[in-house]
Structures are given as structure tokens and as C-alpha cells.
Target: tRNA wybutosine-synthesizing protein 4
Amino acid sequence: VQGTGGSSALSKCSAAARGYVRDRFLQLLVGRRRRRAPLVHRGYYIRARAVDHCVQDFLLKTQSHPRTQILSLGAGFDSLYFRLKDMGLLHHTVVYEVDFPNVACQKATLIKKTRELSALVGDIGEEGSGVIAFSGEDYKLLGVDLSELSELERVLEEAGLDNEIPILFIAEVVLTYMENRRSDAVIQWAAERFSQACFLLYEQMHPEDPFGRVMQQHFRQLSSALHSLAQYPDREAQQRRFFEKGWTECSVMDMNEFFTCCTPEDEQQRVQALEPFDEFEEWHLKCSHYFVLAASKGMEPSWTPLLSNMTVPHHDGPVRMAGSITAAVCAKRSEISGLRRYGHHSVLIKPNVILTTGGFGEENGHHCRVRNFHVLIKHAGYWKAGCVKKENADKRWDERLYHTVSCLSKSLALVVGGRTSPSSAGLGMLWLKFPETCNASDPDDITVELVSLQPAAEPAALRWRHSATEVIFKGEKYLFLYGGRSAVEPVLGDWYFLHTQELSCTVIPVEGPVPESRHSHSACSWKGGVLIAGGLGAAEQPLGSVFFLRDLEHGFQWQTVDTHPPLIPRYSHTAHVHDGKLLLVGGVWLHSSAVPGVAVIDLVTGLCLDYAINEHLEWPLMLHNHSSVFLPNEKELLLIGGGGNCFSFGTHLNPEPVSLSLSNILTSR
Model:
């Protein structure tokens, strides 16, 4: 548990060094530096922002009181006291910090040795005695085990804590490491012993969905299991917990809501622009698995730092499911390897032959951008896999992610866009040539030749997380390139009509309401036009709109597709059209109480139904950054790859292709 505190301090320090938070004291307390990934920086930024928001709101609401107190439980090497003191916010507040005796002793030694820290505590800062590791006028550092409640109470009383003046308790990922009976006792003690009290809790939730399972496994491997999750798995359970333990007011937000509701728009934009970033799925998933809770009793005026005047959709209500679909590992004759990846693309190049290219995943025992192409072939009811022989592949593939592959004939596919790193320019186009006929039962019989292109349409291809969809205009085939991201624009809303034979962009008139810019959306060919659904918009918020780019005699027209009930906003899903129905598969949304399964939209009536996916698998099925191929004759959906970097919990890649039988939900009614 102490190890998690040290790792957390390093992550906070790295976020401060990159400008996410303004904190010059962290480095003095932590000492060493370790550079973390942008995803981890964002995660620790929102944690720090939530704590600071609630702490400063408490100080503001209690400024008319002659004295107030803050008690930080399991404070570790946190710099809260020094930041508040430096900002001049502790005129009448004493900060108490509690942690294991050896942690408190180390921190006390650091403060005494560091002039800038000891100067802030003040000249009367004196060496503590016994469990009081450090004692200043407005700062007390105590070494005591939180689970020993009677000892904690005795030490706090000795240090001067007063039961009758307003107090804020802070527990920032602390109580969950204690057995529930002990953490419950702390919550109840705080409510019973203090007449005017506030409690700030920041912890994990939703242990049973795929991301939650990866999160739990990570902490179990660190021998620091999250005890509270089984009994208090969600916001409602945590709220009930506090009410039952004696608190009279309690509000909870997940961190997606907190970022949207309690973080000003200009501050959101500042953070989003700090570093090249392309892990939106994991950012939103991390935020949906952490919450901030603010409880109070006896406070006048009432302490409600998490109630916002902004009208933002509440994302944690129950999602109505029309039914469920069972996921099963696809039938195979032999082990299928090489498909543990995300950000790749899979395409049906011939009946029952699926080509998968690119992405980030496992190759030769390492995590890297994947160079090899893989093929899946269905023969006699079973899938076989193989690594494709590539010709002229040395420097032409560029190990790309988030590209598209469009099959234009029996022997030709066009690769458009993609990227290497989020800070690099988008990649251009490539032809993939493969034989018109091949042994449809032997994956090793398939070869692919890569042909570099420098067409006039190249600028249209310098994007990723876009879509490329076949449309027909006046009998001619075009690829409709739409949306995505680029090295210059974080989200694109433009489009191009790429003539598939000449590989040049053609200007075709488009009328109607223009969809807002988006990336990570889905696009499907339908009736000569394109269906665009969902995506992530300019404010990094999922979109729930569906548009149809309809073929007219003189051009195309954007039309909105009204769905009822409204489609829950989502992105990073895949999509297919079958028999007048649009299928949206997986993805990420901001409802933390459930994960997206399969949405079925009737394109005639607009009826929109969500179906849950029942996983009878030995591993968590993460349905974002995946690919899917629909086999209409069998009404079978094959899901390939998917997953990503699960915050600081490690990388999860779906290990095997998964089959969904959709015959029940696609039956005509």
C-alpha cells in the first residue's frame, strides 16, 4: 500500500513538471523524477483538480469561522498544506496529516532538511515527539495506522484537534485499502465525533466491467487489493454508505462529469493542448471508474462543492437494454496468434477471408506498432489464421495505426491515412495488391504487394481516426473520406470525394445541415450514400448524432437520422448495415454504469435498441479500438483485437477473435 503512495507521488510530480498542475513543492517532497505518459498525466490532473476544488470550496464556505481544520488521511508525500499556505489560504486553518509512522517520519525529515518547506511551516516548527512526527503552528504530521481508530483518536487529541470546530476530512484513494469494517468505522467516527464536518473521498468504482476487472487485477498483483469495491461498487452504494454512517448530505460525481461540470471550458482546453494525445478511450474509461464524493453534516451554509449550475447530462443512470447477445471465442482448428492489437483495421478481401493490418499490439513477444499483416480464413466452419507474405514492404507500411483499408476490387485495396505517433504528420496512401484467386483454405497461400502512391489527393489522406466509405455518383465509384484528426487539427469536419480509379479528389456539391466535426465515428455505405454515426467531437465529448449522406441527381445531401429513444452518444465503435438496420458495435460512452454492446437502429422507423453483450470468456472483452467483420449469410459478427493502455494498470489486448451471433436480434418482425 505504501508503494502505491510512492508511485502516485511520482505521477503527480510528472504531471506538475508538464504543466498540468501548478505545484513547485511536489518535487521537493518526492525528490526523484520519472516521466509518465500523457494519459497518466491527465488522470492525476483530474484527481488533483477535484481535491483542490473541494478543499478550496470548504475554505471559502468556512471563512467566517474563527478556526477551521483539515485532516488528510493517508496523506503520504502530498503537498496540499504547502500549496494552501503559499496561496495564503490558511489564515485560520490547521492542517493535520496522518500516515504510517515510517512515512510520516520520512516526510518530517524531508521538511526539516528542505529550507523552502521548513520556512513555510514557520519558525516555531518544532520536532515532534513520539507519533507526532512534526508539529508547527498550523501543520501537524502524525505517524499512526488509520485502522487503529482508538490510537488515531488519542494522537489527534494530543495534537490539538478540536471536535467542535469545522473540519474537512480528506481520503484520497486510502480507505479502499482497508478492510471495510475498519474504513466504515472511520467514516462513522468522523460523523459522530465532530459537530460540523465535511468528508472528501476519491476512489475507484465499477469493478466488474472489463476495465474494472483489469484495474482490480493490477492492484491485486501489487498486494494492495481494493477492499471497498465488492460492497460499494458504484456511486449509489457509496452514497448509501455515508448516509448510513451518519452524514446528512452527500453528492457524488464520476470524473467524466467532474471534468465537464466543474472544470471551466478554457481550463479544459488548456489541459487538452498540453501534450500530443490520442488515448481518448482510456481517458474516458479511467474517469468513469473513479469518483469524487463530498459529504457533510452540521454545516451552515451547507457544503455542496459538487453541485453545478450547468445542465450537463447525468451519465450514471441505468441504461435500458432490450436484450443480450452472447460472445464466444470464435471456432478455430488451431491457435490464432498475431491479432492481439488495437487501432488496426480488418477488411473482408474475399468471401470468408479477412485481412488485418497495422495497429499497436504484440509482435515477437514485444508491445509495438505491428508490422505484420494477418489473415483469417473460414473453412468448413472453423477459422484458421496466418501471417501474410508482404512484397515491397520494407519502408512502405510505416507501422500505422487508425488507418482505413477499402477493398476496391477482387485484387486491390486502398490504405488511407493513419499515423505512427500522435505528434507525427498523418500518413498517405498505399495500394495493397493480392492475387485474384488463392487457396481459400490456406492462410499461408496469400501474398500482399505494397505499392506506394503520390497522388494529387495526398493531402486528403493525411489524417487518422477518419472514415473512408464507398459511394456512387452518376454511376462512378468514389471513396468518401470524412472527419478524423491530423497533426494540425485535433478534430476534422471536412470531406473529400476520391475517385477510385483516378485517385484524384472530385468536387461534388453537398447540401443540407453539415455534421459537427468528429473523429472515431463509424461510416457505412447505404443506398449509394453514407451513414455516419457517433464519434468524438471538438470538446472531446461523445456524439449521439446519426447522419445520412444521401445521393441526389446533382450531388449529395446531408440528412439527420432521428432515433428514438435517442442514441446514447458513443465513439470508437464499429458499424455495419444489414437489411435496413444499422448495427453499432462496442465503443466508449460516458455512462459509467454499463458498457456499450450492440445498438440496432431501424433506418425506416428510427427505433434504437441497445443490447448488452454477455461475456462467457476467461478474459475481459474490451470493445474499443477493435475491428469487426459482419458475415451476412451466417448473421455472425467477428470481433478482432481491441483494448488499449488501461491508465497505469497495464495494457490489455483482447487475446482472441470473438464471435457474436446476431440471428436473434436481426430476425425480421
Remarks:
- Residues 2-297 form a domain with the Rossmann fold fold (CATH 3.40.50.150).
